[in-house]
Amino acid sequence: MIRTAAIDAGNDSLKAIFGDIKAKPLIIPNVVSKLDERKTVDDTNDPLDELHVKITSSALKTSGTYAVGNLAAKRTDNDHIRSNAFKSENDQTIILILTALALDAAKNNLNDKIINVKYILSTGLPVDEAKIEGQRKAFREKLINATHEVVFQKTPKYGGRMVKIEFEEVFVNVEGYAAMINMTMDDQFKPVNLDMMKKTILINDMGGNTTDKAVIKNGKIDNDYSNGSLLGVGNYLDDIIEDVNREFRTKAFKSRRELVECITNEDEKEQYHIWSTGNAQSIKEIVESHFKILAKEQYDEIERTWNRVGRLHAVYNVGGTAILIQDFLKKENEARNKYEMHFLDSDESICSIVKAYYKLLILQAKKKGLKIEEEIPTA
User: Fold this and answer.
1) Distance CA 372, CA 145 (A)
2) Is 301 within the bounds of a domain?
3) Alpha-carbon gap, residue 49 to 208, rounded angstroms
4) Overall domain count for the chain
C-alpha cells in the first residue's frame, strides 16, 4: 500500500502527518547545516535530535550531507531560508521534505537496510508564489519526476540505512486557503463551522519569513484580494539575538530555533531567561520591544487588506508567529479598529496547515481513484 504524507514545510519548522489524520505531527525545525563528518559519544539519543543525512536527488541543485533540524540548530554555521527566496526553488525545502519522509520510512521498516518506499504527498506554497503561473506545476514535477535517495549517517538507530523515495502523486496546495479547509472540516472529514462559509473572512497566516493573507468569500479564495508579503518573525528573531548578544556580552543563541524555545519554555524559570556567568538573566524586555513592532506591522497589513476588501467579517490569525505575538496584536486591535479577531489554540495554530493538507490529500486521492491507507469515514 502507498504511504500518505502531508507536509507543511514552513520557514520556521516542517510539520508532517503520515498515514492517519489523528497521528501526532512530526515537527522538524527548518534549519540545515552542511556536515560531512561528525563524532558521536552516545548512539541512544532520539534520532529526531541528531538527523545527519546524505541526500542525493535530481530535485536538488546540489546533493550533499547535512545536519537537519535540532542538530543543525546547535551549530553556528546553520542556514535558514532567506525571506526573499521562493520556497519551491530552494534546496532547503527539498532537504527537509526528503529527510522527514526518510525518517518516517525508517521508523516503519526497522529491519531493512535498504528501504524502497512510495508516497502520495500533499504539500503547499505561499499565496504569492502559488499565483505565479506554472510555479505549482513546476514544484510538483520537480518532486514526482526525480529520484531521491536518503542515507542516514551518524543518526542514532538508523545510521547506515538507505531510503529510496518515489512519489505516486504530489498535490501542491495554497497555504492560506488550506487553513480555511481545516477550520470547516473536522478530523472525521465532516463539515463544521458552516457559518464561516457564508462570510468573507481573512486568514492571516504568519510564518517565519512571510505572511499569507487569504481572503475567503463564500468558501472560495478571492484571487484579487489574496496576497502575501515578506513580513515574518525571522528577521525580528535575528535582531533579538543581536541585542541579547550585545547587552549580555555572550552568544546566547546559535539559531532562531534556540531563541524560540527559550521564549516558549513551559518552565517559568527558564522562559525568557539566558544563563550568563552562571546567573539567570531575563531577556523578556528585549523580546517584547521587538514583538510590539512586529505586531504593529502585522496589524498595519491587516488594516490595509480590510480597507481594500471593504466587507470583511473577521480575521483568523494562524501560524507559529500568531502564538508569539498574540497578546501584542490583541492590544493593537483594541487600541485601533476593534476588528472581530480570532486566534486558534497553540497546537491547532501551528498544525492547522498540515492538517488541512492531509484532509485535502484524502479528498483529492479519492477523487482520482488512488488507493491509500486511510479512507474517509462513511458513518
Assistant:
1) 20
2) no
3) 21
4) 1
